[in-house]
Amino acid sequence: MTEKVLILDFGSQYTQLIARRIRELNVFSEIVPFNKVPQLDDSYKAVILSGSPFSVREERALRPDLAEIVGKRPVLGICYGAQYIADFYGGTVSRSLKREYGKANLGRIQRADGLFADIETGSQVWMSHGDTIEHLPEGFELLASTADVEIAAFGSLGDRFAAPVYCIQFHPEVYHSLDGKQLLENFVLKIAGCRGDWTPAHFIEQTVEELQQKIGDDRVLLGLSGGVDSSVAAMLLHRAIGDRLFCFFIDNGLLRKGEFEEVERSYEGMGLNVTAIDAKQEFYSALAGESDPEKKRKAIGRVFIEVFEREAKKLTNIKYLAQGTIYPDVIESVSVHGPSVTIKSHHNVGGLPEKMGLKIVEPLRNLFKDEVRRVGGELGMPAHLIGRHPFPGPGLAIRILGDITPEKVRLLQEADAIYIDKMREYGLYDQVWQAGTILLPVQSVGVMGDERTYEQAVALRAVTSTDGMTAEWSHLPYEFLAAVSSSIINNVKGINRVVYDISTKPPATIEWE
Q1: Under 8 Å CB-to-CB from 497, ≥6 apart: which residues?
Q2: Architecture in CATH of 4-191
Q3: I need a labelling partner for 194 at 20 to 30 A (CA). Which of 274, 300, 344, 376 fits?
Q4: Sheet of strand 44-49: strand arrangement
Q5: What is the residue extent of each domain of the chain?
């Protein structure tokens, strides 16, 4: 049985970060909306209440019934979670006269055991809240203070509840809280008593067993993209069911230069049963004259389904369709404030499962991207495949602003190949989360030799991130950017200008469309 820490999401921008920090302790964490608390069976060892953009003083505050949680398992309330626990049990919470935001230090730690074991007085923490807890509920005691916040941490460790309750006004999950990892380790491993044995090897062993039980003697079909997620999903399924896994690798004409042939060779070396399908012209025909980004996505999705369905009819007794869905896709599909919302149109394969009468299997749906990579490494996959940058489902179609033509695809492939090759040459590829080149729908004047040119411009994009939910533009060396620009302009006829995108996410997205 896999031990779990349940995280109730109240809409905080840091909720995923809490989950990631718990998993770094080799303990599985599960995020659910605050109003969808599952039955706390024996697998759940602790519960964490996240922060929130709301105030407990607001009429629209998020108010679950804590009686279903508190006392059943050790509980840790963070920021809003702490304030709501105080309010729920009769304490006093009021709006602060000033917003308590930024770095602070624990000036007093009342109890140097339990949650604060091995954490020194003066430890730096990160505050981000607009409410203040003025009076504690009955049965709770003060645990720590800062210079500006008297009740920075409190808890009920006595007889009021059958399991301890800890509450903190700061965020241990962010790097600015220097002992945040120690605090979470104290709570998860010591207070909740988790074993900390959820490792890539454990995940593989458990997942293979579950896949074998679920699939039995049936056959599974998987669409490979060349990316990390579908490749690792394929290897897990291959280990579980062997040659009863059938893979399609469709060339939509929108991949990077030489990518189809390179990845096809990698798949063959991994022992996968892969059918390579050249469908470039079908995709180009469907995209002809279309400039709207969402319509381009839908056209690609429609043709993918048509090609996939046509090729699938050549196989018999397929019962399951496998997908490389990962945890951020799952989280994004659930709204904290109500029913599920639609996953981005390029995450999954539309209505294909229903249309073909197939059941879905998603072996990676509980993993973050970096965890997928670690599982791939444990499976013995080649480093160049598991270390690949994320690549959008619609491919270069959303990196060519405007309509798509084979010539535009060729131009972008050539420029992008130079960019990525130079990145590897300079040792920068593994230092960024994602990099790519965008072909802009503008032409500009240039001079080459004694001739005037009027050609295309491209934008280079590189970002650092952990999971793609937020991203910072990568501060690449000027000499590297100069070398890339010079090489593209000198070697790709039709491009005479290169610019670098220095936008963060948010407000900008990683991709331009």
Answers
A1: 444, 446, 455, 456, 457, 458, 489
A2: 3-Layer(aba) Sandwich (3.40)
A3: 376
A4: 28-33, 4-9, 44-49, 75-78, 165-168, 153-156, 141-146, 92-109, 124-135
A5: 4-191, 200-386, 405-500
Gap between the Cα atoms of 509 and 199, Å rounded: 32
Task: Provide CATH code, domain 405-500.
Answer: 3.30.300.10
Q: Which residues are catalytic?
A: 79, 171, 173
Provide the CA 174 distance to its chain's centre, in angstroms.
16
Residue showing tokens 């937020």: 470
Binding positions: 225-231
**Interval 231-276: pLDDT, tens:** 999 999 999 999 999 999 999 999 999 999 988 888 888 889 999 9
Domain 200-386 has CATH 3.90.1580.10: no
Model confidence pTM above 0.85: no
Rounded to the nearest 10 degrees, the angle between the axes of helix 369-378 and helix 200-215 is 90
Which helix (H) or strand (E) element contains residue 498? Answer: strand 495-500
Binding-site positions for ATP read: 225-231
- Does 200-386 match 4-191 at the fold level? yes
Contact 85, 70 (CB under 8 A): yes
First-to-final CA distance of the chain: 43
Helix H, strand E, coil C: the string for 408-444 is HHHHHHHHHHHHHHHHHHCCCHHHCCEEEEEEEEEEE
- Report, in this order, helix, strand and coil percent for the chain, each rounded to 5: 35, 25, 40
